[in-house]
Amino acid sequence: QVQLVESGGGLAQAGGSLRLSCTTSRPTFSRYTMSWFRRGTGKEREFVASISGSGAVTYTADSVKGRFTISRDNDKYTVYLQMNSLNPEDTAVYYCAEKSRVSARYEYWGQGTQVTVSS
């Protein structure tokens, strides 16, 4: 059983920054693609960014608009989401997830961390 734990959320001002962290219990973490999703109040879950085991990254341009950066530290079993130039529309619960190497679907999810951006 894999456990993912997010941290780093909180309250930020518009234009400010936050860095989210997600630590996994999977020993072979370096082989897995990890992603960040978010769900705002009354909204559907939205893909934000992903990073492969080799470091290839993918972003959702329409929502992120170049403001966020995903990275990973395999030695620390952690994936990060650096969030800059925050605006109130970024307010949401942010989740990290692990992509299955068998089904190519996201099998394990963290509990989420709340990000609130004030204007």
Quick summary of this structure?
The protein is mainly beta. The protein contains one helix and eleven strands. The strands form two sheets. Strands 2, 4, 5, 6, 9, 10 and 11 form a seven-stranded mixed sheet that branches. Strands 1-3-8-7 form a four-stranded antiparallel sheet, with no helix packed on it.
Q: Overview of this structure, please?
A:
There is one protein chain. By secondary structure, the protein is mainly beta. The protein has one helix spanning 61-64; strands at residues 4-7, 10-13, 18-24, 34-39, 46-51, 57-59, 68-73, 78-83, 92-99, 106-109, 113-118. Strands 2, 4, 5, 6, 9, 10 and 11 form a 7-stranded mixed β-sheet that branches. The chain has a 4-stranded antiparallel β-sheet with strand order 1-3-8-7, with no helix packed on it.
Question: How does the SSE layout of this entry go?
Answer:
Elements: E1 4-7, E2 10-13, E3 18-24, E4 34-39, E5 46-51, E6 57-59, H1 61-64, E7 68-73, E8 78-83, E9 92-99, E10 106-109, E11 113-118
Parallel strand pairs: 2-11
Antiparallel strand pairs: 1-3, 3-8, 4-5, 4-9, 5-6, 7-8, 9-10, 9-11
Number of strands: 11
Shape verdict: globular
Strand content: over 45%
Number of helices: 1
Distance between the termini: 40 Å
Biggest β-sheet, characterized?
7 strands, mixed
Over the alpha carbons, how many angstroms does the gyration radius reach? Answer: 13 Å
Low-pLDDT residue spans: none
The assigned structural class equals mainly beta
Topology as a string of helices (H) and strands (E):
EEEEEEHEEEEE
Mean pLDDT: 95
Q: What helical percentage do the residues reach?
A: under 10%
